[in-house]
Amino acid sequence: MTKSLLLLPGDGIGPEVIGEVKRLLAVLALDIAVEEALFGGAAIDATGLPITDETVARALASDAALMGAVGGPKWAGQAYDKRPEAGLLRLRSEMGVYANLRPARCFAALADASSLKREFVEGLDILFVRELVGGVYFGTPRGIEDIGGGERRGVNTQVYTSSEIRRVARTAFELARGRSNRVCSAEKSNVMEAGLLWKEEVTALHKAEYADVELSHMLADNMAMQLVKNPKQFDVIVTDNLFGDILSDEAAMLTGSLGMLPSAAIGEAGKPGLYEPIHGSAPDIAGQGLANPCAAILSFAMALRFSLGDAAAADRVEAAVDKALTGGARTRDIGGTLSTQEMGAAIIAAL
Ligand code: NAD
Ligand code: IPM
Ligand code: MN
């Protein structure tokens, strides 16, 4: 049966990197119905909203949605609920994609592209499982209020329930079984109640159902340090929304560039997934053809694997990226001179 993919190019380098996915789609000629919608700042300019109800409905009716990136200086002055980023949070929440898989894999050809020495990153293969629809991103109360005397107060709330923690931990344990069977859970249980609950719930689920998986716990600040000290100690890392955001950007540099790291956000079985490179709209290089399209292309491969029922095509796309890199194809962020389009062309040529 024909599968459906909704492309959400978004802002800045988003349309540039999704453009390379479109060229790849044309060459692969798979049985996928591809649609496109405005998202983020581009949607604000056209409709006043970062995402419309119609676009949310179309994403929910698709098998997968693949976005580029949203945001940029043009819209940064708006109230939070009117910003491009709010559209992304709404989409994640309405799609219920609570588990964000962010694989930090160092391609062999890029072992010298990281700012760490080769021996620390060669063969690196970490899978982050970031909780994506809860925590401080969504907790209430939130806001900025005047509290008199010329003072203002900014409030955000870190909040997790047991079931929110357990469902994402379950995803991490399940995925670990298909890998090296090790999970490290990161929180700040030393200073935060939500972190303590996180640790307790992960421990209880492990004891009850996943005792065969090796589980360890680490305070998130220590993990930030350990990721640069000895990153290969990690297999699967499960953590909350905010720590997962920060630690996965850090891990991206171990693979050579933020432009290399894809992601898949999944929820209940059978529901559509949301796929996105972990990088943003990169206003500093947008419109110049300098963006690395690998993260977007590898996110498309994850969509093929997890939502579009074509693992063989996913393998082909991932192998083509590997082959292009091995052949020396490089955008500027990974030490080369190719443009976004030239890099996309090198990957297509390697198919
Ligand atoms: P960013 O990820 O956009 O850029 C950080 C740095 O990495 C920049 O120097 C940029 O040039 C570089 N970079 C990012 N992607 C690259 C790529 N594919 N190839 C080469 N270099 C790349 O983060 P930022 O500058 O902090 O944020 C810019 C905007 O993007 C903000 O509005 C932010 O909210 C938004 N953002 C959106 C997403 C998303 O849509 N998923 C993710 C992160 C940030
Ligand atoms: C990401 C981004 C988003 C996040 C922003 C743009 C809402 O940084 O996808 O990593 O913080 O989740
Ligand atoms: Mn981020």
Automatic annotation (TrEMBL):
<comment type="function">
    <text>Catalyzes the oxidation of 3-carboxy-2-hydroxy-4-methylpentanoate (3-isopropylmalate) to 3-carboxy-4-methyl-2-oxopentanoate. The product decarboxylates to 4-methyl-2 oxopentanoate.</text>
</comment>
<feature type="binding site">
    <location>
        <begin position="280"/>
        <end position="292"/>
    </location>
    <ligand>
        <name>NAD(+)</name>
    </ligand>
</feature>
<protein>
    <recommendedName>
        <fullName>3-isopropylmalate dehydrogenase</fullName>
        <ecNumber>1.1.1.85</ecNumber>
    </recommendedName>
</protein>
<comment type="pathway">
    <text>Amino-acid biosynthesis; L-leucine biosynthesis; L-leucine from 3-methyl-2-oxobutanoate: step 3/4.</text>
</comment>
<feature type="binding site">
    <location>
        <position position="130"/>
    </location>
    <ligand>
        <name>substrate</name>
    </ligand>
</feature>
<feature type="site" description="Important for catalysis">
    <location>
        <position position="188"/>
    </location>
</feature>
<feature type="binding site">
    <location>
        <position position="245"/>
    </location>
    <ligand>
        <name>Mg(2+)</name>
    </ligand>
</feature>
<feature type="binding site">
    <location>
        <begin position="72"/>
        <end position="85"/>
    </location>
    <ligand>
        <name>NAD(+)</name>
    </ligand>
</feature>
<dbReference type="Pfam" id="PF00180">
    <property type="entry name" value="Iso_dh"/>
</dbReference>
<comment type="subunit">
    <text>Homodimer.</text>
</comment>
<feature type="site" description="Important for catalysis">
    <location>
        <position position="137"/>
    </location>
</feature>
<dbReference type="InterPro" id="IPR019818">
    <property type="entry name" value="IsoCit/isopropylmalate_DH_CS"/>
</dbReference>
<keyword id="KW-0963">Cytoplasm</keyword>
<dbReference type="GO" id="GO:0003862">
    <property type="term" value="F:3-isopropylmalate dehydrogenase activity"/>
</dbReference>
<feature type="binding site">
    <location>
        <position position="221"/>
    </location>
    <ligand>
        <name>Mg(2+)</name>
    </ligand>
</feature>
<comment type="similarity">
    <text>Belongs to the isocitrate and isopropylmalate dehydrogenases family. LeuB type 1 subfamily.</text>
</comment>
<keyword id="KW-0560">Oxidoreductase</keyword>
<keyword id="KW-0479">Metal-binding</keyword>
<keyword id="KW-0464">Manganese</keyword>
<feature type="binding site">
    <location>
        <position position="102"/>
    </location>
    <ligand>
        <name>substrate</name>
    </ligand>
</feature>
<dbReference type="InterPro" id="IPR024084">
    <property type="entry name" value="IsoPropMal-DH-like_dom"/>
</dbReference>
<feature type="binding site">
    <location>
        <position position="249"/>
    </location>
    <ligand>
        <name>Mg(2+)</name>
    </ligand>
</feature>
<keyword id="KW-0100">Branched-chain amino acid biosynthesis</keyword>
<keyword id="KW-0028">Amino-acid biosynthesis</keyword>
<feature type="binding site">
    <location>
        <position position="221"/>
    </location>
    <ligand>
        <name>substrate</name>
    </ligand>
</feature>
<dbReference type="InterPro" id="IPR004429">
    <property type="entry name" value="Isopropylmalate_DH"/>
</dbReference>
<keyword id="KW-0432">Leucine biosynthesis</keyword>
<keyword id="KW-0520">NAD</keyword>
<keyword id="KW-0460">Magnesium</keyword>
<feature type="binding site">
    <location>
        <position position="92"/>
    </location>
    <ligand>
        <name>substrate</name>
    </ligand>
</feature>
<feature type="domain" description="Isopropylmalate dehydrogenase-like">
    <location>
        <begin position="4"/>
        <end position="347"/>
    </location>
</feature>
